[in-house]
Design brief:
protease; Peptidase_aspartic_dom_sf; hydrolase; Asp_endopeptidase; seven-stranded mixed sheet; three-stranded antiparallel sheet; ATP-dependent zinc protease; 1 helix
Length: 136
Amino acid sequence: MQEKRIIGRIETVDLPELGLYNICAKVDTGAETSVLHCNQFEIFEKDGHRYIRCTIQGHPDFTFLIHRERVVKSSFGQSETRHIFITKIKLFNKLFDIKLSVRDRSSMSYPMLLGRNFISGKFLVDVSHDHLAKNI
C-alpha cells in the first residue's frame, strides 16, 4: 500500500496536457468532482462522440472528448449537468489522471477545485497549510 502524501487547503497545480501551469486550486473535500474555470463552452457531436469545446484562461478552442455527463447539485442547491473529461494533473512533480468538469468560476476565489474523486486514496488534507505539493 502506497503512503498518502499530504496536501494543503490550497495547492498550485499544473495541467500540462492543456499547457496550463501554476493554477491555484482550492482543495474541497465537500465537492465530489474537480472543476476548472472556463469562460464559455459548447457541446457538440462528431463521428458519434460528444465533445466539449471551451475557453480556459483566455485560450480559446480547447476541445475534449466527454468521458461522462452527470447531474450535480452546486453548493447553492441548483442542479446542473456537468460534462467530465480526463486529463493529467501534476502535483509533487508527479502526473496523475484527473476527471474534470468545467464551469464559470469567475465569481469564485480560485479558478479550480480539487474534489473528493481526485483526492481519495491518494492524499490526506491538512487544512492548516497551503501549497504543500509545489512542483519543483
